[in-house]
Amino acid sequence: MNNTDKEVPASGVPDTSNKKYKKLVSNTVILGAGTFGSKLLVFFLMPLYTRYLSTAQYSDADLITQTANLLLPLVSIGICEAVFRFTLDRDYSRKDVFTSGFLVIVAGGSLLLALSPLLSLISYFGNYTWLIDLYVISSCLHSLCAQFVRAEGRSMLFSGQGILGTVFTIVLNILFLVVFGMGVTGYVLSVVIADFLTTLILLLPFKVCRNFSFKSVRKETLASMLKFSIPLIPTTVFWWITNVADRYMVKSMISSEVNGLYAAAYRIPSLMILLSGIFIEAWQFSALTERESPDAVNFFGVVFESFQGVMFMAATVLISLSRLIPLFLFAPEYYETWRYMPILLGATVFSSLVTFMGSVYLVNKKSILSFITALIGAVVNVVLNLVLIPTPLGANGAALATFASYFIVFVIRAINSRGHIPFDLHTVKLTLNTIIIGIQTAFLLFENQYWIYVQIICIAVILTVNAGPILRGVKKLIRR
């Protein structure tokens, strides 16, 4: 490239503002290669799960893992998020941060074991309490080590350990479900053992354990971390309610079999959660490192436009394929899952947008705002579940409640977060995208005779509206 091709501002200093975009894309690709590859492998185990687990068993396995996910923030006191945030902060020692996080998890795990007899009194989990305990402790330790190496900028290691953990899970699933026929216990235990093995590999061969030192612990650091993480506990619990409470309510108000179908239907939106999660992991790193940049507002706006475009494009394709997906991924008795997918996919789009807005709170350490908005979402979700599930909508009433709660929280966060970073929401495009997937869903669920043509038209419109800005951004990065 000759000198005339370079962009040089009036100051005479070459323009390096695109470096932040390159870094974001680089991290997304690295994290995506590991995370998407690993999670996609687990996703394609659905035929195995639906063959060796009945709908009632799948319902039980799902509720066990989701209960463990509820206990995770309580046991860890949200410290893994604090480890990621404070490791990136140059004012704190990394050994101090990691050791503080480890000690908090040890204390929380000990308390969980002491109180587990109380959990066994709940009829749902009486015989599985020990599995829940192991799941929580192994997941906390794995998350601590993984978030630490992620904050260190060791993206390849973070990505690689995700793939390795998935390989362990797949091998153990086949062993426990197919060979030994362990059912629900084998399903959960495979994840537990995979987490423990991956944690040991991070601690020993990759020497994460060298960051542990009692001598490095400072009360001031621990206090600051807890001040940041404690408000995240109810926040995470409220998001759990928004995401999972509907499954408990579907089981109690309808049946375990219907809840098994509903839980299996969640596996399709999980592809979008995976897609957004890969990006959000990279985005949080970029948002934190670029928070002081004079171009931060424009950076947020450009990234948000592309992000919401990708999410809506993914949703419109998956919605159009809702009737076909169960034929290839599920056992025949799970086919009716297609009826719950379209609304859940719409809910997942706004769940992802809510998470993006939460990055503004992360950057500004406004965890109290995350708490308040999550509380609103949880209340809306529970109330609407109670109202809609008993109606003819049934389990789709639960899906609609989930969509409504995420949509409301997104609107609140969109208004509030722009008071901190006033980036462009591209409201017209966002509204049009929402209307299009709404039309898709209506024609599909009401089984209108023209539903196939409507799906094709909606896909074409979504691609036309969103592909341009994304392609321009990609071309810009390639050209530079």
Please state the structural category: mainly alpha
Distance between the termini: 10 Å
Poorly predicted spans: 1-16
Give the beta-strand count.
Answer: 0
Radius of gyration, in Å, reads 23 Å
The SSE string, one letter per element, is HHHHHHHHHHHHHHHHHHH
How does the overall form come out from the CA principal axes?
globular
Compute the average pLDDT: 85
Percent of sequence in beta strands: under 5%
| Assembly form of the protein | single chain
How many DSSP H or I helices? Answer: 19
Q: How can the largest sheet be summarized?
A: none
> How many domain modules?
2
Task: Please provide a written account of the structure.
This protein is an all-alpha fold and 480 residues long. The chain has 2 domains: 53-230, no CATH class; 231-480, no CATH class. Helix content is 77%, strand content 0%. It is built from 19 helices and no strands. Helix 5 (94-119) packs antiparallel against helix 6 (129-151). The radius of gyration is 23 Å and the shape is globular. The N and C termini lie close together (10 Å). Mean pLDDT is 85; it is low at 1-16.
TL;DR of this structure?
This protein is mainly α and 480 residues long. It has helices spanning 19-43, 46-52, 55-76, 79-87, 94-119, 129-151, 155-179, 183-203, 219-229, 232-253, 256-265, 269-289, 296-320, 325-329, 341-363, 367-388, 395-417, 427-445, 451-479.
Summarize the SSE layout with pairings.
Blueprint: H1 19-43, H2 46-52, H3 55-76, H4 79-87, H5 94-119, H6 129-151, H7 155-179, H8 183-203, H9 219-229, H10 232-253, H11 256-265, H12 269-289, H13 296-320, H14 325-329, H15 341-363, H16 367-388, H17 395-417, H18 427-445, H19 451-479
Helix pairs in contact: 1-7, 1-12, 3-6, 3-8, 3-10, 3-11, 4-5, 4-6, 4-9, 5-6, 6-7, 6-8, 7-8, 10-11, 10-16, 10-17, 12-13, 12-15, 13-15, 13-18, 13-19, 15-17, 16-17, 18-19
